[in-house]
Amino acid sequence: MSLKEYLASLRGKTVAVIGAGISNRPLIPLLAEAGAEVTVYDRATREQLGEFYDTWAERGVTFSLGPDNLDTLHGDIIFRTPGVLPTEPAIQRAVAAGSELTSEMELFMSLCPCRIIAVTGSAGKTTTTSILAALFQAAGYKVWLGGNIGRPLLAEVDSIGPKDIAVLELSSFQLHSMVCSPDVAVVTNLTPNHLDKHGTLDDYLNAKKQIFRNQSPDARLILNQDDPLSAPCAKEAKCSIRWFSYWERPETGVFFRRDGTIYHTRIWRKTPIVAANKILIPGDHNIYNMMAAFAAAWELVPPDVMAHVAETFPGVPHRLETVAVRNGVTFINDSIATSPDRTIAGLKCFKEKVILIAGGKDKGLPFDELGPVLCQGVKSLYLTGMAAEKLRAAVGDMPGYLPAGPAIHMIDDFDEAVRAAIGEAQPGDRVVLSPACTSFDRFKNFEERGDAFRRIVTETE
Questions:
Q1: Are 183 and 219 in contact (CB under 8 A)?
Q2: Which of 333, 348, 391, 406 has the smallest count of CB within 10 Å of its CB?
Q3: Is the pTM of this model over 0.85?
């Protein structure tokens, strides 16, 4: 079915769209112009939606706004935003009453005419997705990048050709109720995350597993052989498995050998891809990301193209991104590090101790493992935001914190914390923003936080 045919089937139906954010902004006009009776549900006010509200209210779209916007939720079809899980009581009531639940991403996947490669995981999924897009582009494919990265693709689905490739990053929120799965699914790793939203680890893990649970037998699943939570997913898969590993050589997949080279292996016959020390982006976690991408793209991208991309791929903004080098001081934006394990992975990339800016809104995750890493890898710690005291306790209350532990500075204002860290830095230092928390106490997202860091660094002499 084409998008045009699907939209034609909606004429006269009642359609609810939960969320008027980025993922649903292109969807709402499509539905309204197709003749559906559209109601948009959002926590925002009319004033906050601004011109978007004025335009589409005038064209017949109904809006239910404010904190109680879901109280009247109903519709033949409900498109949910990723930020509102299907466990929301209002959604469950509507589904029990007969509503069909879907999302912009799920509809895209069901209509997409080309091969879909999708990536999920607790860490590394954005970088792995971006590497995959770079691999396929370098190999000559037309690539459509979307999901939790790039742009909403549904409005463009009728422009996608069967020989193109769609590369998607999928979050646990997007996957939670999804009933379709990609041709190739990649799970980078699984660690406790977003428990403030999911409530339990089981709910989070079950959402992630939706990426492969509906795969056909001729599909493929890429798994991290070294990861204790994602490796067992192989027992639940209905398709073939390819592994990637830093420590072991799988029968089929990609692995890192002690000679410093990344290899592909199939039935124990190995093919060299690239020396790890030639990978442009730093850190062992990026070796994992490269291996995951190589395993997913192996039969479609030649090894020499893989090596070229590994040696030239510059990384993703807000992920250990060098934003400036000034007066011998390097400023690194790792705003994507919204959980303790992401900050731990980032700090392990540096041989010397750094000046670290951390804090924000925590996800309900413990900082127990982060505390020792901060003591070992940070010489001066600037804490800001709602989780500042919790982070301070993770470091300052550790046995043996003094005398070797970092100096701790509690500065509530983000801008002031960054400027204070800049003021302390001497030639040879690295000033790193790696918050271990979300940005939602004062920013819309981690991108806005990273942009603020970049702006302050640029403006501060």
A1: yes
A2: 348
A3: no
Peptide bond into 113 cis (omega under 30): no
Which spans in 254-302 are helix H? 284-297
DSSP 123: S
Q: Which residues of the chain have pLDDT under 70?
A: 400, 402-403, 461
CA 358 from centre of chain? 19
C-alpha 368/C-alpha 395 separation (Å) is 9
Number of H helices, E strands in the chain: 17, 20
Instruction: Spell out the residues 6+ positions from residue 397 whose beta carbon is closer than 8 angstroms to its own.
Output: none
Report in angstroms the alpha-carbon separations of 410 from 178, 363, 385.
42, 20, 9
pLDDT at 18: 97
- Model confidence over 400-443: pLDDT tens digits? 676 677 999 999 999 999 999 999 999 999 999 999 999 999 99
3-state secondary structure of 102: strand
Cα distance between residue 201 and residue 171, in whole Å: 15
Quick check: helix, strand or coil at residue 406? coil
Strand 240-245 versus strand 184-187 pairing type: unpaired
Angle between helices 388-396 and 370-377 (to 10 degrees): 70
